[in-house]
Amino acid sequence: MVSVTLILLGFSAVGLCYVLWCIIQTKMESRRDLKIPKSFKSSKETEAEKAIREMKEFCPEEDGRTQNVLVIYATEYGFSKEVARKVAEVLADRIPDVAPRIINAVHYNFIDFSKEQMCLVCCSTTGDGVIPTDSKEFYDLMSTEQDRSAPNLKFSVCALGDRGYPHFCRGGHLFHSVLESYTGSKPFVEMKEIDQEDWEEIEEWVEQVAGQVESMSLEEADSDYLEEAIKEGLHDSGDSNYSLANPLHAPLQCKRPLTKVESRDDKETIHVEFDLSGSGLKYTCGDALGIIASNCPDEVNALIEALKCDPQTLVKAPGNDLYLPFEEIALNSLDLKAVKPDFVAAVLGAITSEDDRVYATKIFGKSTLSGDVHHLKANPAFHSFASARFMVDVLNSFPSAKVTPKIVVEHARALIPRFYSISSSPNRDENVVSIAAAVVRYELFDVPRSGVATTYLADRVDELDLVKLYIQKNNNFRLPTDDEKPIIMIGAGTGVAPYVAFLQDREIRRATGEAVLFFGCRHEDKDFLYKTELQQWSDEGIVELYTAFSRDTEKKVYIQHRMEEHGDRVWKLIDSGAHLYVCGDANQMAKDVHQALRRIISTGAAISDKEADAYLEDLEKKSRYQRDVWLS
Ligand SMILES: Cc1cc2nc3c(=O)[nH]c(=O)nc-3n(C[C@H](O)[C@H](O)[C@H](O)COP(=O)(O)O)c2cc1C
């Protein structure tokens, strides 16, 4: 990186060189041939073949490598897999005897730790500080089955996360402590916490691991058992074939508004149904639907305009070796709303005008112009700047910066799927899956902005259009298997969606246990989602409905108030074995509801607040207090 002194002394010369470099770079990109990625997946490939291909990518058999390193990744959106591939690649390149095998934590049941010498775990955190969905069972197994312990196993964890979340890297921490008790030892390389896909930090961990492995001599090991176990044990199960990497293309069957929108303050929520006929996709009430949306073309065009680039410029697509037109990558693969520090650093480093330099100095201070990412990350001004801007706003803030499409692609976050609680029961119609999506629209710097997937569903796809989707299992949000058990469902806004599925399901199964729903929204006549269905179920005695409309009365009334008003009833149900469900906003609603439950239990059972906490913890352990909450 060019130093500050150089920038100040000879900026115009450097700027000119940079412009020329950018032009050459862009032209080279557009001349490159299209490449088929090494890991091209044939449509006939079975699950087992895919897992084995992935596992052996960096340990070809003919190399005769004998020292095994197992690289396990636990991922929600795929980044941890990239980190796993990186560490495996470096180990394989650097150390001739080492055979790094990569495995998704989903396939945990094939791993026999007594046959492994070393494992490297790359694990992200999702939701409100939880382990990636598909890896939860692996973690649960490791933390409960002490008899499968492996005292000779060496391990290290790379924890991927984001400091913006309250539970930074919690998933990695959980795996780290379970590995400590599993092995009875400390990691051979300290756990590394990674904030926002910081490759510099990741490379530091990779270097430390590679350095240590180089100086160690691992015993020769049985390298075949895992492949054999996968071949024997991993069978295609139809629905499990649909995933982020291999989604179902399902026709949108119907779309209807669930709210009345009369002013800009009113909530806009839509019900969307997809046709699953013939797909074999299976789901259970409580699961979420992952929607893989594309960006709004207007936003992509604005970015192209800010870059002053040819939209057809070929750029290496993230996560594989394909070269694709920039416009296509920006539309389908980049999160254009997330501003990473390395992107801002790259833009600042590419400024070519005095005006922009002065403006940047005013915002970030002089030293940040060097383009040093760590400096920028430690600067509070960066965080307030980045959190209020999209990538295009950063470019428009410094119009003289010569930024190429390649720089944008390399410094953008991946566009991740959005998850919506499913509002239908497969027992009612296995060929249909539906969701309720709250449409996100707002203004920033006088420009209308929108949420990616919700406006994709509301504005850019219509009936019969194909939408890419898959199921995200949620085994921690399930109806009791015993239909006689009472249930208490608590949710606000779109948090009611899984309860619509629950009630459909219980209606069909003629469940006899009582069902109580506390539902909250702003206005009864505007955003009472699924009002007709809920009122009908209430009239038919299928649900006992309590509502809180926060903006219909002078004094705001929320669901926790309604719960406390009916505290006796709630306590009686809990005391008789009811299962409790909370769905919706993690920040406010779930916390307030938790406090209300605590008070209800302490009054009902005549115990102290501390004892009520223990009571709730116990309910949680017994899966009688389940939460599906998200940070908005
Ligand atoms: C919905 C969502 C929730 C997240 N929750 C957390 C969190 O609680 N703590 C944290 O440190 N990072 C959190 N992250 C950040 C991710 O862990 C981080 O982006 C990571 O690089 C993703 O890796 P993956 O693609 O392997 O899942 C969250 C990200 C998303 C999109």
From TrEMBL:
One of its GO terms (cellular component) is cytosol. Residues 69-210 form the Flavodoxin-like domain. Its cofactor is FMN; FAD. Gene3D superfamilies: 3.40.50.360, NADPH-cytochrome p450 Reductase, Chain A, domain 3, Nucleotide-binding domain of ferredoxin-NADP reductase (FNR) module, Translation factors. Residues 245-480 form the FAD-binding FR-type domain. SUPFAM superfamilies: Ferredoxin reductase-like, C-terminal NADP-linked domain (SSF52343), Flavoproteins (SSF52218), Riboflavin synthase domain-like (SSF63380). The keyword Magnesium does not apply. The keyword Oxidoreductase applies. GO terms for molecular function: flavin adenine dinucleotide binding; FMN binding; oxidoreductase activity. The chain crosses the membrane at residues 6-24. It comes from the Eukaryota. PROSITE patterns: FAD_FR, FLAVODOXIN_LIKE. InterPro entries: CysJ-like_FAD-binding, FAD-bd_FR_type, Flavodoxin/NO_synth, Flavoprot_Pyr_Nucl_cyt_Rdtase, Flavoprotein-like_sf, FNR_nucleotide-bd, NADPH_Cyt_P450_Rdtase_alpha, OxRdtase_FAD/NAD-bd. PANTHER family: NADPH OXIDOREDUCTASE A, NITRIC OXIDE SYNTHASE-RELATED. This is NADPH--hemoprotein reductase. It comes from Rhodosorus marinus.
